[in-house]
Amino acid sequence: MPPVRELDLLHKVAVISGASRGIGRAIAYHLASRGCSILGTCSGHAGVDALSTGLSEEVSRRVFAATARERPESLQIKGLVADIFSDDCASVIADELSNAFNGRVDIFVNSACDPMPGVIGAMGPDEVRHSLLGNIQTPVMIVEELVRRRLFQPDSRIIYVSSIRSRQPWSDQLMYAAGKSAGESLCRTWAQAFGGKDDRYAFMAGTTANAVTAGLTETEAVVNCGPEAVQRFQDEFFPSQSIPRFGQPEDVADVVGLLCGHDARWITGCVVSASGGGIKIG
Ligand SMILES: NC(=O)c1ccc[n+]([C@@H]2O[C@H](COP(=O)([O-])OP(=O)(O)OC[C@H]3O[C@@H](n4cnc5c(N)ncnc54)[C@H](OP(=O)(O)O)[C@@H]3O)[C@@H](O)[C@H]2O)c1
């Protein structure tokens, strides 16, 4: 039986990039189970269906029917194709918020990424550009668009899903690690800008920005690398973890969820390790 959560995010709206599968989907489920409306992005129509129908029905069944509670009318769950490699990703998201979510966003979670590793000595400029676009430029442009259109609300939450790879380097993942490190840096600057000190962003004062650095997590992105690679990852990461097992998407989602609540209002500009102790920060 899943936990019965307080509906503390009722009437709030979350945008989660890469929400149709894996960690992003678990974050969407977690926030929806607290009453938050979800605009989840993905790369294709199968993902839209997985969100608008699959996730929405699962939330109705497991969160509300199973606990004999009515699903709140305000709770919307929608999928949207917003390719992180397209020029209009940010405006597509902002348009949808304006058209279907009362022109507001309270939580932005950047979970979609370019998983291209970046092997030293084997990269061309196109691969490097692609990685910078997916992991840095598009998240920046999404926040830019949401700020410019003043869709962010006071006390909003911005969370960039990073990776422990940014602190546990490997020559075969140069670009992936660099993109994640940059995401953590973006959060520090967003935190400083949006807290309330800068009049230009007074409309969203109290907003926090943090990175959650995920450890080895059992998702398709990892499992599809094949058994040999999975074993290599386990051999690399388990010894440094305090809890030596694969993380599940829900393990990471629950940490993201902690940062989204009112109780986390004083945590900003941080990197929180969601890795079973794989990386110890602080
Ligand atoms: N798994 C791990 O061990 C691990 C560890 C550290 C950090 N992370 C981070 O966690 C995040 C999620 O990873 P995951 O393992 O959950 O990945 P995943 O299971 O492969 O899920 C990827 C999600 O991103 C979406 N996506 C893929 N390409 C996209 C594009 N071009 N535009 C928009 N959406 C796109 C997918 O949508 P479609 O269904 O439409 O393809 C899907 O919803 C990533 O930022 C990753 O770096 C993961």
UniProtKB/TrEMBL annotation:
State one molecular function term (GO): oxidoreductase activity, acting on CH-OH group of donors
Q: Which PROSITE patterns match?
A: ADH_SHORT (PS00061)
Instruction: Read off the InterPro entries from this record.
Output: NAD(P)-bd_dom_sf (IPR036291), Sc_DH/Rdtase_CS (IPR020904), SDR_fam (IPR002347)
Under Pfam families, the record lists: adh_short_C2 (PF13561)
Which key words are in the record?
NADP, Oxidoreductase
Q: Which family does it belong to?
A: Belongs to the short-chain dehydrogenases/reductases (SDR) family.
What is the name of the protein in this document? Uncharacterized protein
